[in-house]
Amino acid sequence: MCFQQKMIHSLFLINCSGDIFLEKHWKSVVSQSVCDYFFEAQEKAIDVENVPPVISTPHHYLISIYRDKIFFVSVIQTEVPPLFVIEFLHRVADTFQDYFGECSETAIKDNVVIVYELLEEMLDNGFPLATESNILKELIKPPTILRSVVNSITGSSNVGDTLPTGQLSNIPWRRAGVKYTNNEAYFDVIEEIDAIIDKSGSTVFAEIQGVIDSCIKLSGMPDLSLSFMNPRLLDDVSFHPCIRFKRWESERVLSFIPPDGNFRLISYRVSSQNLVAIPVYVKHLISFKENSSSGRFDVTIGPKQNMGKTVEGVVMTVHMPKAVLNMNLTATQGSYTFDPVTKVLAWDVGKITPQKLPNLKGIVNLQSGAPKPEENPSLNIQFKIQQLAISGLKVNRLDMYGEKYKPFKGVKYITKAGKFQVRT
Amino acid sequence: MLSLPPVQKLLRPKSVVGSDVAKEVTSPVLATEAGPPTCYSALRADELRPLAAPKDEGAASTGQPPRHDDLKEMLDSNKDSLKLEAMKRIVAMIAWGKNASDLFPAVVKNVACKNIEVKKLVYVYLVRYAEEQQDLALLSISTFQRGLKDPNQLIRASALRVLSSIRVPIIVPIMMLAIKEAASDMSPYVRKTAAHAIPKLYSLDSDQKDQLIEVIEKLLADKTTLVAGSVVMAFEEVCPERIDLIHKNYRKLCNLLIDVEEWGQVVIINMLTRYARTQFLSPNQNESLLEESAEKAFYGSEEEDTKDAKAEAASLAKRKPYVMDPDHRLLLRNTKPLLQSRNAAVVMAVAQLYFHLAPKAEVGVIAKALVRLLRSHSEVQYVVLQNVATMSIKRRGMFEPYLKSFYIRSTDPTQIKILKLEVLTNLANETNISTILREFQTYIRSMDKDFVAATIQAIGRCATNIGKVRDTCLNGLVQLLSNRDELVVAESVVVIKKLLQMQPAQHSEIIKHMAKLTDNIQVPMARASILWLIGEYCEHVPKIAPDVLRKMAKSFTNEEDIVKLQVINLAAKLYLTNSKQSKLLTQYVLNLAKYDQNYDIRDRARFIRQLIVPTEKSGALNKYAKKLFLAQKPAPILESSFKDRDHFQLGSLSHLLNAKAVGYQELPDWPDEAPDPSVRNVEVPEWTKCTSREKRKDKVEKPFYSDSEGESGPTESADSEPESDSEESGSSSSSGTSSSSSEEEDEEEEEGGSEEQSEDKEGEEEEEEKRKKKKEKGGPRKASPRSVGSEEEEEAEGKKVKKAAGPQGKKGHAETSSEEASASESSSSGSDSGTEAPTVVEAKRRKVIPSSKAGPKEISLLDLDDFTPPPPQPVPSSSIISTSLVTDLEGLTLTDTSLAPALLSPAFGAVRTYELLHRMAGEGLSVEYCFSRRPFPGDPHMVAVQIQISNNTDAEVKSLRVSEPKLLAGMRIQEFPEIESLAPGDTASVVMGIDFCDSTQAANFQLCTHTRHFYVSIQPPVGELMAPVFMSENEFRKEQGKLTGMSEITEKLTLPEKCRSDHAIVQQVTSAANVGRVPCGADNEYRFAAKTVTSGSLVLITLEWREGAAAQLTVNSEKMVIGTMLVKDIIQALAQ
């Protein structure tokens, strides 16, 4: 007999200590021992981040992702686009996150039945079936404390007793019969600055990664259009399937029937570098003296081009070289910690006030006898600026068609540091 | 008949007493059932009960692990909450990978449980363990078989899904039938499930391939987005080689693509990539020449450049100009928007499609999207970077603008860093090398030593590829030789060695420097490299080389093997060039090597000694030793490990592993000659042709798709409003795309436009002819139920597009949109508008159903409940659960191939069509009817009559309805909803229900149009007044025993030649009457059972086939009239 079986065969969930705590097979059962190949690769990789996502074994291929301290290892038998599997596994993890509030081992173990029901619906014979959260939530209700109490009293269940209408309609992301007393639509424009700043303070690379996350609680079948003051700013956009692509192409208007609840409407990129204003600067002096087993560390963070907003939630993390034993520093603002095991220095600065710039200064103790570290660590900076989209993107208006009521509409802007790195 | 409730009643008191007892009692019952089927079928109900008792003790001794007893008890309880709790615990066990297979009998009993969650969990269990417990798994099958007939599409779909997931080879025929039937289901969702089931069945039994291909072919023609992805997935798994099946569906798939769900998109795009490679010509065939000249021009003078260009132009002119097939363009155009998908797999699929199919100039568009994916999860980055690495070798220019996006952060995982480095190296050229080298300098100081090593190699590659920077790189690397980290130094040495080989003469200083390093460097590879360098270029460092050898001889025994080999090598080379100083050293080294533990080294020593030291025995080779050892060696070429990886389809697993994965479909090379493009022409029915002509004249901008979507709006209750809105947006936006696309295609259109137009017209004429032929064929085809359905669809679709065409014509303005675009649009419009067709038909159906339709029945997806029985399963009112376990089992034991059709689908046999109103009598309106043999949804006592009305007049027929029925007492009629209008040439299909009161009296009524009334009557054949019943042989005998005497009619008959096979007999009987087959132990006996629709009286048919042609037919029924008529009908049917 010919067994040509494609797509995802089995799924194993493995925690960091190497225990397989959940397995699910969509076809014939594959023995747990197949995971040994994975463990072997994991051991070789040393770091969890470096486990290759695709491993070839004599009879199977293992494609895995690492999310929230869990490895999702899927077993594949034949050719399949690896991204297809990876994307799906992330969708599974997203769904768990969505259902249980966190995608942790405990949450999955506590809700093992729901997890199983979800996996059953999401994949049929290894091929994705229902991955839209709106449909899934109609089929299987997410657990809440209240419901579990009610269930235990009334004996009712988590399995939805209504038909997943969305699955049948041509807008599968929205369920039918949505009703709210307060009709609200919120949009969060979140922009992250990815940047590499070199030693001298000049920008090597910078771009803005933006997303618009939405929370739509509108009754019925609203048809929304969202327009921007300056849509040409958006360089490269990816859309939620609900968005009518042609409308965007021709008019640069986001027109869509939204899913119910929280979802990511678009993500976009603003990549031309001169558009990217870097809101902070860092003055740093990190040096290790030859043969003295000590070094100097002096870092100051200051605001720059912040358009009148305060930079807050500033945190700096530094992976110090292995030779560093300890650090004796004083911070003019905030507090710092140094973990001598992982060699990570974390400085929680808080808000930057231009009058008095935060500074962290002191002595680095090195392992005596060890050669002075050649490399200087890079500084990873996090920050947040409320009520500002650094690219200058502005929502113009939101119109709703198809329903009579007047919804409450809200837009929030926020800028954050993404992968923001200062080389020293 | 044995029904389960008595057994359970019997057991329940015991099970309360102790869990052990419960287990003991239940298991033997089930164990017997699991036994050989034939043996069980012979058992009578009364035999079974005593059987259960003695086995009790036996079960106790065999004993299953006791820890599951509590679970079994809970499963046997009649409280859903206990069952649920038990199932939850069992599922948790499965999730943990614990074996729960011994609970199978206890669990499978609950397959018909009313509680949805219990049922769902039972399914989970069943699918997991069915393969291991095949016999027991059969118990559940009939539940699903019933589910397959449920009026609710979601229940049908879910039944099919579970049924097809049970990997039990015995049920292959049942699955096959179920899939076939579901493939022609009204509901696109059920058809989608059918498509999903195909690969499952195929993996279970690959012998079914041919039949499955038929189903796939049918489903490929489906016009809904819901089905498209799933059926292409099935196609890819079952028959990827049957590329011919795609031709007719190609344009439709291209047009539907954007609306298909994400996962389906990936599969379709990958398949279309392969398809396009076999059907179209390479868009770069001319450019490959251009490319060469361009490369030359890069270094050449300007003059040369222009000359080249001229020559090139001349040679191009000679060749046939390349014109892209419009279908090729269609694919590229329709996939492009998907680059904006949020799904990385979709973006990657489009990217590889463009990489493999698009003209070189257009491939660039994918770079941006791929770079965007680099922001995603690290696993996604990993895969994308691998593909970018391959692409960046072939098409460097594409990613150059995004160079900085590949810059490395110290926080990236090492495997990502190394891949980014690979891409950066591939992108390096003379203009950007300085930037890249500056970036590399930062990397060299990283803490991640593996990454530093990779960076050094990257620098080496840049140096070999770009001559200009070779010296700079070399100097930089030499500086690294004083690095404190040994790994860095070692890697540098290896790379320097490779670089030096390119121009050794100028670098004796570096060689000297490296010779000094032998004291410090411990990394074997680096030591070996240095030794090789010194040996190879010993003439450049004549003083140092013997000294190095001296040191090495001293430490020889402590060296690694690769170092030892190089020591021998160095010794040999020195002996040949400078034997005075090194003779003794060489002999010493060779002696040491002679007694080495490693045989490679011993061999090498022996070999070299013979070769270089002249002895009496040594042969002629001695003379050539110097030439052998000191020959000019070509410099190694440092090239990317991603070179030539693009012979694997990008984005595939094989590409990632750089090895052919199981089941990989080779991406074919472009054909030299394009295959006939007309194979993709779809027969365009007349209506589209008109509109497309109109369009050609008027150049209407509004695309069909959105228009018809709008038209269909009102039929979709919930979605109607937004849909019509989307129509507006679609139409307005389409202008934008068409204009943008026309820009792109201007060139091609100028060349190919006129040709195409004439071609198109020809094509249309052909199609017209074909269509006429098809129409003629259409008549006889109607006999089969499936063709009725499909025509229904076609017609519905036709009607809709007509509607759509109206406003379009009016709106038309003279405009010059691309010829090709309109051509493709017109072809697509047919298929697109069809998307909605089934839903419309369904909507109509829904309207037919009276509003009183039981609400609760529709509640759940998984409610396979048959206890509120749909009409064809009349159950004796006394034994409610009789249809459950035991009965199922009895039915099942005999489920062999020939039996299956009757069991499964009464509606499957040939359905005859009768004429209600002839075209002449109806003044152009012709009406036909047939008995669909499906339960009439509104009322179980009614016979469903499917009516097909065709308008053959030139005018629209309005308000078609039924009026003034003249019925005998007791007869009732459920009219079909008024058809508001029927356009000329259109056909509508409706269902009405008639309660004939179990008589063959005709139902008379008037069929009214807005102008005319026609008197018509429907007279049912007696065989249509009943619905099949599923019963066991025992039941059958029992019931037959009650219906003797007056109720029994026996007739003798002779079977004609062609009716002497099992198959033929069953088919003839089931075509004559709507009956279900009853399993039967004897070989030459056939039994059928049915119930009259109105009163529910049993009709039992027995056909005994004696020797030769003789046979005896017995019909038992308390309705004597029906019995007599049925005998007549069946004999007539068999005699035919």
TrEMBL record, chain A:
Domain MHD: 182-423
A cellular-component GO term for this protein: cytoplasmic vesicle membrane
PROSITE patterns in the cross-refs: CLAT_ADAPTOR_M_1, CLAT_ADAPTOR_M_2, MHD
GO biological process, one term: vesicle-mediated transport
Origin superkingdom: Eukaryota
CDD domains, per database record: AP-3_Mu3A_Cterm, AP3_Mu_N
Entry keywords, A to Z: Cytoplasmic vesicle, Golgi apparatus, Membrane, Protein transport, Transport
UniProt topology in membrane: Peripheral membrane protein
Localisation per UniProt entry: Golgi apparatus; Cytoplasmic vesicle membrane
Family as reported in the entry's similarity comment: Belongs to the adaptor complexes medium subunit family.
Function field: Part of the AP-3 complex, an adaptor-related complex which is not clathrin-associated. The complex is associated with the Golgi region as well as more peripheral structures. It facilitates the budding of vesicles from the Golgi membrane and may be directly involved in trafficking to lysosomes.
Identification of the protein by name: AP-3 complex subunit mu-1
UniProtKB/TrEMBL annotation, chain B:
Residue ranges occupied by any AP-3 complex subunit beta C-terminal domain in the UniProt entry: 854-1001
Signal sequence interval, chain numbering: none
GO cellular component: AP-3 adaptor complex; axon cytoplasm; clathrin-coated vesicle membrane; Golgi apparatus; presynapse
InterPro entries: AP3_beta, AP3B1/2_C, AP3B_C, AP_beta, ARM-like, ARM-type_fold, Clathrin/coatomer_adapt-like_N
Compositional bias of kind Acidic residues: 718-728, 742-768
UniProt-annotated location(s): Cytoplasmic vesicle, Clathrin-coated vesicle membrane; Golgi apparatus
The protein's name in its UniProt record: AP-3 complex subunit beta
Its biological purpose: Subunit of non-clathrin- and clathrin-associated adaptor protein complex 3 (AP-3) that plays a role in protein sorting in the late-Golgi/trans-Golgi network (TGN) and/or endosomes. The AP complexes mediate both the recruitment of clathrin to membranes and the recognition of sorting signals within the cytosolic tails of transmembrane cargo molecules. AP-3 appears to be involved in the sorting of a subset of transmembrane proteins targeted to lysosomes and lysosome-related organelles.
Family: Belongs to the adaptor complexes large subunit family.
Domain of life from the UniProt record: Eukaryota
Membrane topology category: Peripheral membrane protein
Ranges of compositional bias, category Basic and acidic residues: 695-704
PANTHER family (UniProt xref): ADAPTOR COMPLEX SUBUNIT BETA FAMILY MEMBER
Protein keywords: Cytoplasmic vesicle, Golgi apparatus, Membrane, Phosphoprotein, Protein transport, Transport
Region: Disordered, residue numbers: 695-854
Residue ranges, compositional bias (Low complexity): 729-741, 819-837
Annotated source species: Gallus gallus
GO biological process terms on file: anterograde synaptic vesicle transport; intracellular protein transport; synaptic vesicle endocytosis; vesicle-mediated transport
